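REQUEST
  id: r-88c1
  op: predict_structure
  target: Cell division protein ZapA
  payload:
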Amino acid sequence: MSETKKNRITVDIYGVPYIIIGTESPRHIRQVASMVDEKMREINSMNPSLGTNKLAVLTAINAVNDYLLLMERVERLEEELKRVKD
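RESPONSE
  id: r-88c1
  status: 200
  body:
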C-alpha cells in the first residue's frame, strides 16, 4: 500500500500565516493561497469597512460562484463534444 506524500507549506493570506497540508504540489498550494489573498484584497478595496470574517465569507462565496460557473461551462462543453462525436 503506497502512502501519498503530503506537503506542508506556510502561506500568507491577507497578512496572516497559515500552514497548509495537502497532496498537491507546493507550487499549486502557493498559487491557491495567492489567489485567495488577491480576491480578499480586491473585495476589501471595494468594501474597506468589512471585518475579516465577512471578507472571508464573501471571498468564499465568490470562489464557489466561479467554480459553479466553470462546472456549468464544462458540462455544456462535454455535451457539445458528445454531440459532435455521435
